[in-house]
Amino acid sequence: DERIEGVERAMVKARAGEAAVAPQLLQGAFAELLNPAAQPDDEGQRLLQMLTPREVEVLVRVADGEDTRLIAAGMGI
To answer: In this protein, which residues make up the domain named HTH luxR-type (predicted)?
Structure first.
């Protein structure tokens, strides 16, 4: 089944520290969330305000397509 193969590929990528979701999808989702010019709904804005600056930095890096290892190295983790 094609869906199962997709899940398996995502799991292999996640285990390897790679992005399991296409960077283009993440970029669009995070751009909407992080763009102050956008009009986020009240719930989205509330959730965004709950994040620390460090968490926002991680989200931006994920949206830029960085994998786990690159994010960690770039943030000195």
So the answer is: 44-77
